[in-house]
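Input chain follows. Return structure tokens only.
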Amino acid sequence: IFSPEQVEGWRKVVAAAHAGGAKFFIQLMHTGRIGHPLNLPAGARVLGPSAIAAAGEIYTDQEGMKPHPTPEPMTDADIKTAIAEFGTAARNAVAAGADGVELHAANGYLLEQFIRPTSNQRTDSYGGSIENRARFVLEAAKAAIAAIGADKVGIRLSPYGTFNDMPDYPEMASDYAYLATKLNELGLVYLHLVDHSPMGAPEVPATIKQAIRKEFKRSLILSGGYDAARAEKELEDKACDLVAVGRPFLSNPDLVARWKSGAAVNEIDFGTFYTPGPKGFTDYPKL
């Protein structure tokens, strides 16, 4: 959400959501090394913390699947620009009517690339210790807070997530506990913790969730393969304050009504997740 045209487009979406009584946060992401020149405007560069290509391939419209390119290591100027862009995007989101933004520091994209020592092997103040590797994320959060206020800024984290070549490493638990402490000090409105185990990643250990719950004093959101019964139990056990639901909402436009009544839910068509057109987006039946 970096252009006036995007602000105008999102204004329509946000207004429709607000008309239905919803709160609306826009998730802000920078893909970092998970990109390809064929997917970018002419002259754009694929950037990352270090010159380390992600394993695997990425889809391009022109040539199909292509290996992930080796990113250019971000210079100090690149880092300053990217941090400022998070602030600009946050300001634009609120200008579009959104209630806030969620910084996407998960799923192997740029913010998480800085956190993880497997993708960040810098030797400057943004690499090495967790204090340094967390710096980019914290500065991006500060930029968003300066733009719109901490009560409108949340963040998404995915410890133990392996998507986009984010392998496990020994200091994972302590690194994310440190990050939760620092994010709490900034006063972010919520921390959204993703467990990707339903999609095949290692499960986030209960000890990690408990440590983050202890360190982060405001709203904790958990997500990852929830149905109504499991979500209700997590809330009753005070494991979190909110539960985020993704895939069931895609296939059930009336999911809330179904969960309230105990009705069966529609099966998800995974094949239409990233395809154009109405199929898989607006054609799932309501009760």
